[in-house]
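Bench notes, afternoon.
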Amino acid sequence: MTITADSWIHGAPVQWTRGRIKNLIASASNGTWGGDPAEDGSDVRCIRAADFDRVGRRVKIDGAPLRTIEASSLRQHLLRPGDLILEKSGGGEKQPVGMAVLYQETEKAVCSNFCARISPATHVDPRFLTYVFAAAYGQGLTQSAIKQTTGIQNLDAGTFFSSAWAYPELEEQRRIAEFLDSETAHMDGLICATERQQKLVMERQSVAFHDSVQGEGGPDLNVIEPETSNAEWRMLPLNHALNQLTNGYVGPTRDLFTDDGVRYLQSLHIKNGRIDFARKPYFVKQEWAEGRPRIRLGFEDLLIVQTGAIGEVALVDDEYVGASCHALLIARTNRSTLAPRYLWHAFRSHWGRNALLREQTGALHPHLEA
């Protein structure tokens, strides 16, 4: 049997109703952008996709702009607690259009003309419907209903709402929503605790490098001067300790990407001092990579992010030898002078990270140059 996005419906409890997503919706209407704010106290918030809490699936109203909405239009478009806001136009390659969030505020607001206001049917719990839309988004149902003729993605709401779905009675919907709310809150707490722990570990790593340098008789990195040296320590410009520093800005055209082949690393693959290729793997054709030996990676090459999370670094291990890369500086040390792992620890410290950040250039698009 072919596995499709709605295959789960066959295994849903027998007492659940089989139907379509549109059966869960009372109405769906496009939003409005209104006019420039009058600043006389009559303006209302206009919720855009930029005001979506994409993790909690709720609205972040504080940052939503104020707009003037005529009284007749406001009656038509006013959001009510329990409505959903569906992004219908916008999106991008890494964040497709089609996400929906729940409106739970009491402040007067409308959604923008790039979104739609979704009112749940009377037999549908709004929180449950939010999880339905989240599941549909995760399963790719919204992506399959996207029409894109320009750089902007447009969701064909009619196609999406016609997607098959199964759902229980109202009371069971509420129990499911309450369970998922509780589990989501628990997971959010674990994520926060993990992030705090990671931050503490990174701070400890920074302090450990500083302490180890001073413990070995090295300079105080807080007051380091270029001429600092002693019998055991040498101060050199970094390029004197490198055999090569390669700018990895040259990238392949779209037709050179493939489903397998040579691994192709970008800045998004460098996180917390390591290569995380599982986040979004890319591959390029073998012949393209072989024709660019300067950006083919060797063992213990140091990768430095050039744009985005500038200063993030990672060492190449055996698994990624031979991979290619983009928007990453490749630093190859003279190993008789500077051990690659020592340089990795140095740039992972507060001192090293700040040294890299001081070298960034470009006001609109900060980046590092070789």
